[in-house]
Amino acid sequence: MVPKPESSIYIDPSTYPLARKDDSVVDDFHGIKVPDPYRWLEDPDSAETKAYVEKLNDISRPFIAASPVREKIRKKLTELWDYEKYGCTSKHGNYYFYYYNTGLQNQSVLYKQKNLNEKGEVFLDPNKLSDDGTTSIRTTSFTHDGTIMAYGLSEKGSDWVTLKFRTIEGVDLEDVVVGVKHSGLDWMHDNSGVFYSRYPEHKSAIEGSSTEKHKFHSLYFHRMGTPQKDDILVADFRDDPEYMCTGTVSEDGRYLIVEVGRGCDPMNLLYYYDLAAANNKITGKLDLKPLFDKYDAKYEFVDSEGDTALILTNHESPMFKLIRVKMADAKEGPTKWETVIPEQEKSKLDWVAPVIGGRLIACYVEDVKNTLYVHYAKTGKRLYQIPLEIGTVSSFFGRKHHSEIFIAFESFLIPTIVYHADFRDAKPTDVVEIKELRRVEIAGIDTKKFNVKQVFFPSRDGTKIPMYIMHKKEVKLDGNNAAMLNGYGGFNIADLPWFSVQRLLFMQYFNGVFACANLRGGSEYGEKWHEAGMLERKQNVFDDFIAAAEYLINNRYTSPQKFVSLTRF
């Protein structure tokens, strides 16, 4: 039995302000009365909410400020954060592009270079777009020939995005599109314009300051050289106001693929439009054809070849599989589908990308880490594995018409490794070696002095739950160590290994133990794992976290008095 914790950090709960309880707010869901007495707190702009938050701040601010080590922690965090940061390289037209941050810049800068061995030159520096450095690049999309980049800017963390357009020479065009939100961004292959998404009516707001609920997310086409008021509504879905939609142009430029779904739902609809058959003319709403018109699974477009498409799906396959379908009859169901890469029992197929030479790069989640394999696109046969350390593929770039691929990788102790491989002149069965293009390290931190291991412990119902545990090798397991336990367990999100400066500081300078438990409700083991932690099964998430804490305490990594919970369920 785990003893009752006695924390050394204490704030008298009697000093906290009482929130007004409004018993008049009651919802009726199919005859079931559900009270919501604190709904007034959902309005961040009301005077009452602002006053209540300020009372809370009056308690927390002086408590935090009184810490004798706060300034030391701030200085050490600043030192650790001051390291070079690189994003994944990509290639568009004749240039390579990558994001780079010298260390403490507010925003990373987009660079371009003619070849990988030369020094890059600044292509777009968002730090120069505002005095306070809070204007960020939220999205980019290059034309197929790499001559123009569409980019979306966000102000002060807002979800609202303004689209602008820059030539490869670094000159901004006059086109501007405002009010974009939750949008993809893709070009027609003739460079005539871009597809983007927005709500028909909107009021831009800074993220976190608006609770306005928007409806009827719609897909638009902006024709270059024309004002936004002339943008063309090409698709909307008025039968459900919560549907959100995005448009993607297939790599061969023939099809517009429209994905429709609700928020974090693990399912969606897919439609297509034959742009080539219409001579790439966009004049109004498109006559979309259904690829998958049943809202029963996740369907993700991967690639097309002629009148067929490769689709990643979890239809009757909770760990996902890759199928090939004919565009015209995919909607008729599984009898018309061909399995290319079958579902694996213990490995979730996370994404698939086509690359040159009839190859596919397949990324799996295997026991809470990413693995990469090369497959033959025609048959799905697995050719070989791309070697990686235990960690996460944070970004990938590869195209059917490019011979080169780039892989960005990170882990608990590794901020970034960018790998590069070139399939030029390689036969489909040749094993192509990946090489390090860049490896980012933290000055003063020797990662060899740390230990990272994965354990599997039983939850309350006996289900085995994975958990990573990390600390300095010199740490003694005597129950006297401070320990942080991270857990998420929600929204179908896989909590894979990721790098954190704060975590590194805790382990390096406080001899702390950090653990990351992969609770049910995420997607680490597919849809069944997700469903096991939602709705009436949400208790499993709490049980998993409690069992993780008990494991750390019973195995003397820490004690109740020195245990810290980092939860977001």
UniProtKB/TrEMBL annotation:
Positions of the Peptidase S9A N-terminal domain: 17-428
Catalysis performed (reactions): Hydrolysis of Pro-|-Xaa >> Ala-|-Xaa in oligopeptides
This protein's UniProt keywords: Hydrolase, Protease, Serine protease
Gene Ontology process terms (BP): proteolysis
Keyword Protease among UniProt keywords: yes
Enzyme nomenclature, EC number: 3.4.21.-
The Peptidase S9 prolyl oligopeptidase catalytic domain, residue ranges: 498-564
GO molecular function: oligopeptidase activity; serine-type endopeptidase activity
InterPro entries in UniProt: AB_hydrolase_fold, Pept_S9A_N, Peptidase_S9_cat, Peptidase_S9A, Prolyl_oligopep/macrocyclase
One Pfam family cited in the UniProt record for this chain: Peptidase_S9_N
GO cellular component: cytosol
Highest taxon of source: Eukaryota
Keyword Cell membrane on entry: no
Family listed: Belongs to the peptidase S9A family.
Record's protein name: Prolyl endopeptidase
Organism: Toxocara canis (Canine roundworm)
